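Standup notes, structure subgroup. Blocker cleared on the flavin-adenine dinucleotide input:
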Amino acid sequence: MTHALAFIEISASGEIRNTAAMLIAAAAQLGTPVAVVVAAPGTGDAVTAQLGALGAAQVYLAETDTAGSLLVAPQLAALEAASAALQPSAIVLAHSIDGREIAGRLAVRLRTGLLVDVVDVRSEAGNVIATHSVFGGGYTVEATVPGGGPAIVTVRQGAIEARADATTATLTTEAVIVDAASAAVIDAVHDAVVATDRPELRGAARVVSGGRGLGSQANFALVEQLADALGAAVGASRAAVDAGYVPQTSQVGQTGITVSPQLYIALGISGAIQHRAGMQTAKTIVAINKDADAPIFDIADFGIVGDVFTVVPQLIEALGTRAE
Ligand SMILES: Cc1cc2nc3c(=O)[nH]c(=O)nc-3n(C[C@H](O)[C@H](O)[C@H](O)COP(=O)(O)OP(=O)(O)OC[C@H]3O[C@@H](n4cnc5c(N)ncnc54)[C@H](O)[C@@H]3O)c2cc1C
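Run returned:
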């Protein structure tokens, strides 16, 4: 069986990002899963056991002093070295900002093909077959990389539900040399994410989103209350963002964040194609809208025609009763 590499992103505080389990599972669908991690010398061993528990058969730990000081160059060098050593059939990364940047550059360096924003992967007769949800979720297409090079795949966060079986990972540690002269240097890091106890929108298992139907920033608290009752992330339509109810970082859709949660609840959102493009691959969609003809009901698994200010408080109360 060939290897498939899963590139694991590590946060500034040294924690494995929540996409790791999905990426290892995706790699396991394509070969023997190898987690590739970049860390400063002596700091990466702690993650080996965690990645084994997520199903990585092997951890390829690339050690470099430049892990946090050069922009994506160390990660690229690590994946290039791991690819040369292991000759994988595929290299999977998160469809995150860093993942996309690294994947594009890696495809050029390895002179191979790139499959982006993939919602599922499988191996067929030795080829990597990627599934994409395109045109706002209206079509599902499959694509492959012919020609033998490893397929570089970015996976939509939250899209793959499968999880690999826990194992004890073997550890391979390599020193990676990065040419700092040709890399962009990180001068300072500013955390743009607003501190919150809620799950991160990208990759959240549950999302509650609000639209223009909420009517005001004060009323948007209703969306947050339902999200908190469900342990969900908060999202919004662009109209809600443009109206100033929430920051742009909450926008779901074509020009916002793409989510693929288990549960997506749309409150006072009409369901424009640009909004659907960012949430249509959610496993279960619930819509509450007072207009029975709103397009969101065309894709909803469960729909309530009603006023959010009447329905949502009852929903929160019912959830509270269940929790007791
Ligand atoms: C290039 C481009 C990119 C775009 N990108 C995005 C994007 O990334 N994300 C995005 O969301 N949009 C995007 N848009 C905008 C998109 O076309 C829609 O305008 C937007 O999604 C509408 O937001 P909305 O559903 O909140 O508002 P509306 O379309 O105004 O819908 C509000 C809904 O709330 C319902 N409602 C009102 N009051 C209540 C109530 N009390 N109870 C229940 N229901 C109520 C109404 O019946 C209505 O259906 C983009 C547009 C363009 C042109």
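Discussed briefly. The chain has two domains: 3-182, 206-323.
Next: hand off to the docking folks.
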